[in-house]
Input
Amino acid sequence: MTTDAGTLRGTGPVGAVKARESLGGRLAAAASGGLVRVFLIVVGLFWLVPTIGLLLSSLRSPEDMNASGWWKVFSQPSQLTFHSYRTLLENSDITSSLWNTVLITVPATVLVVVIGALAGYAFAWMEFPGRDWWFLGVVSLLVVPVQVALIPIAELFGRIGLFGTIFGVILFHVGYGLPFAVFLLRNFFAEIPRELLEAARLDGAGELRLFARVVMPLGGPAIASLGIFQFLWVWNDMLVALVFTKSSTQPITVALQTQVRQFGNNIDVLAPGAFISMVIPLAVFFAFQRQFVSGVMAGAVK
Output
């Protein structure tokens, strides 16, 4: 009985495969080690530096900000003050624009979620003539850039008296948010087991009751993800607001840009205004991050 010497020495094909596997295993083990975790934590802290700097800048007086950088507060914590936030609250342009942002963002988010959910359910489970062609038409709108429609819709809104109004901005955001909403929710609702819907219909549930009692609870993660996406998009938007609003209806993004253009050195208003504009969408995201992750991962694992 003979034995291959190359196999015994581990230099044959099988030995080479095992060597490569063990090398990959060693690399995978090293990648999951403590050193990589420390590196990822350092990267995360590095990305947080601008946010921390903005927060500390908003808590310093204009004189201190002109004299030194924000990191000076670590050696002189007495520089921290809420004077800039008091100045911000006394600035009617910033406070009114912050309220305008809420008036634009909340209705635009709610309308997109509600209409998108209804349309997504219809495209997923209701039979009507040309359903697939209508859905393809909705999906094709995803490739239309927002810049293409700015001037035509601005002219249309001017003729019907909606230009410069909050309602006009809401309509624009709803119109451009619906294609993605319908596409996302239709694909999610289509994964619901048909047997579950048929059982509800046998129990006497109509379409609206079926949608409210069965589909909406099951679609909670996807709806939460859509709501977060839409909220962040509308809240941080400046292009649409810059075109369709005027001084009395402008949101916080346009108001801060106007403050920079007009004054340039009023950092005591810009720093706290920018931080508030940033921290509100962050708070919304972290409040619903569990639902967001569930919605993103929905359908990835059967």
